[in-house]
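Need a sequence for this fold. Nothing fancy.
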């Protein structure tokens, strides 16, 4: 590619501005000190950022430290200059009190880097749950050419000849521990078996979901999301990604060209077909708001609910990441959806082609893992959006409702879509862990468990604590799931049929704040309602009393960021993003270049 192929590089304002020679000298000198030459910095080659999310603190993404070498080779070969820099690390299972706090922080940091430095295009190294949305949100805000590279899942986990999937095995192991089937050491061994290599969760958890959706959105090279981290194909994808971003800069192909409403609706459909995480609506709605596309929680039910489940991955199914890749990954799923007219084929992707051109002819290589559309694993695998006096919006993944659960809750022939029962309310996971096995709570197979104080403000950060196991005495009696409702999130690796992401949360004085243990709650999946069966006067009196006490109580902030985020963060239905004026999420793309710094 010739240098004149890059007409309007923002990096020239730093490195090659003859009208501003004293500042140009200042900008140049420090980037020379590790061996870049004056000639190349002033050659008109594009400067490509490699936004590095891998580190020892974020093992899911750590393999990006290796892949970055191949990304650089691709960038160099296509005529670009690579500058690699760290992104605030996020690790889902290591960060306390929850990695939910860190998505918006990594986002903020990355926006400052992409906007304030001489970067013409960027490779976003995605992986662990929140690293993908954080990177895509930042790229949307700054709107410079950007391409995502997934780090890929770990190899399949195995234990005694059976696949053990990350996260999913934890929920099973907890039940086995509670039932006395394994001891502490057996618990750790069983859980560790699910993580045999570098990479992210090998289940259809939030990481596989969000990387699949990044590809479905068009922000990742076709076929690259599902490649397992250690595979040689992953190295090759890194190289092609590096090459392609340089071409994208030449073409001025920006996130706003790709992240259209059609692309988001495509991703919603794909999310249902893959059995994607309940975190997907939070993150996709957040990305949409940063690029200025209108996307609503209601869109998830309208466009996603009726789509069947095609991908047979844990937690909803049997298989794991290696199988998903071998069976054809995202393109094979998209091709099935295209065959039924469920995908807008004209949506543009990072390779300059449409999703239709990329995926239309992709074949399923193993029908046990990816089902053809006419033989799905289950019908209607998307989310229902429930509303009522408990909350304005919460979601439920009805496809994970198992036979045992259905038989106990949804078997009334007069009313096959509704159930009701007395609630037991927990204020945070500590309360739940301390009391769940206490017989005095009187939890029966007809009880509903409620977790509150777990939202973006209350926790803070919205933790994955809503799915709760029944008391040990019920598990021993064969009851493996009770309905759970909460204002927090649930891990994408859990198959519990919970009612999640309730907004507004208790800490924002949503209806959940007024609920008391012993109240009856009625869930109607036909009408999509969730109601406390408490008279309105009584609820009004409870609200007045709680307000007089200063509102629903939640723990004090422990870090400056916790405190800052609490003052700005919105609720889960609208993406739990930092709220501001109308242009707030897109300021950087509307303001031109930043001022000189000296
Ligand atoms: Fe990082 Fe699952 S914990 S991907
Ligand atoms: Mg998680």
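Here you go.
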């Amino acid at each position: 590619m010739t240098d004149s192929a890059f007409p309007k590089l923002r990096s020239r304002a730093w490195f090659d501005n003859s009208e501003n020679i004293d500042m140009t000298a200042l900008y140049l000198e420090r980037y020379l000190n590790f061996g870049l030459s004056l000639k190349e910095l002033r050659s008109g080659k594009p400067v490509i950022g490699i936004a590095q999310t891998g580190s020892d603190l974020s093992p899911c993404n750590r393999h990006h430290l290796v892949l970055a070498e191949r990304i650089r080779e691709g960038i160099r070969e296509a005529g670009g200059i690579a500058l690699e820099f760290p992104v605030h690390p996020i690790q889902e299972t290591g960060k306390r009190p929850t990695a939910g706090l860190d998505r918006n922080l990594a986002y903020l940091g990355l926006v400052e880097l992409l906007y304030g430095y001489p970067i013409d295009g960027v490779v976003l190294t995605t992986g662990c749950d929140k690293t993908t949305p954080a990177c895509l949100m930042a790229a949307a805000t700054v709107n410079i050419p950007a391409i995502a590279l997934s780090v890929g899942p770990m190899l399949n986990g195995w234990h005694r000849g059976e696949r053990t999937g990350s996260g999913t095995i934890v929920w099973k192991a907890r039940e086995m521990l509670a039932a006395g089937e394994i001891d502490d050491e057996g618990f750790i061994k069983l859980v560790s078996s699910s993580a045999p290599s570098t990479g992210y969760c090998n289940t259809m958890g939030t990481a596989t979901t969000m990387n699949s959706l990044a590809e479905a959105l068009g922000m990742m090279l076709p076929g690259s999301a599902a490649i397992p981290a250690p595979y040689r194909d992953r190295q090759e994808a890194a190289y092609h990604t590096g090459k392609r971003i340089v071409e994208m800069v030449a073409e001025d192909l920006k996130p706003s060209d790709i992240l259209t409403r059609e692309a988001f609706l495509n991703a919603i459909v794909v999310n249902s077909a893959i059995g994607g995480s309940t975190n997907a609506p939070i993150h996709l709605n957040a990305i949409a708001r940063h690029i200025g596309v209108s996307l609503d929680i209601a869109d998830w039910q309208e466009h996603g609910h009726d789509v069947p489940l095609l991908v047979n991955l844990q937690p909803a199914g049997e298989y794991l990441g290696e199988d998903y890749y071998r069976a054809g990954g995202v393109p094979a799923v998209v091709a099935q959806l295209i065959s039924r007219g469920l995908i807008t084929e004209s949506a543009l992707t990072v390779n300059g082609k449409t999703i239709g051109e990329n995926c239309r002819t992709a074949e399923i290589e193993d029908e046990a893992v990816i089902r053809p559309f006419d033989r799905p694993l289950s019908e209607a695998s998307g989310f229902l959006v429930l509303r009522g006096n408990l909350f304005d919006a919460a979601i439920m993944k009805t496809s994970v409702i198992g036979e045992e659960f259905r038989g106990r809750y949804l078997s009334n022939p007069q009313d096959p879509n509704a159930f009701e029962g007395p609630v037991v309310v927990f204020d945070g996971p500590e309360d739940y862990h301390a009391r769940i096995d206490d017989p005095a709570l009187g939890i029966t197979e007809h009880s509903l468990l409620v977790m509150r104080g777990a939202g973006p403000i209350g926790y803070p950060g919205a933790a994955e604590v809503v799915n709760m196991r029944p008391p040990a005495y019920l598990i021993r009696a064969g009851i493996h799931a009770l309905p759970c409702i909460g204002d927090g999130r649930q891990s994408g690796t859990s198959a519990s049929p919970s009612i999640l992401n309730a907004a507004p949360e208790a800490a924002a004085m949503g209806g959940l704040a007024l609920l008391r243990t012993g109240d009856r709650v009625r869930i109607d999946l036909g009408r999509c309602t969730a109601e406390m069966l408490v008279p309105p006067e009584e609820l009004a009196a409870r609200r007045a009393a709680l307000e007089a006490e200063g509102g629903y109580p939640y723990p004090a902030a422990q870090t400056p960021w916790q405190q800052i985020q609490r003052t700005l963060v919105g609720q889960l239905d609208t993406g739990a993003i930092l709220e501001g004026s109308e242009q707030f999420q897109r300021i950087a793309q509307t303001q031109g270049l930043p001022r000189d710094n000296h």
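For context: The chain has three domains: 45-154+198-360, 157-195, 383-549.
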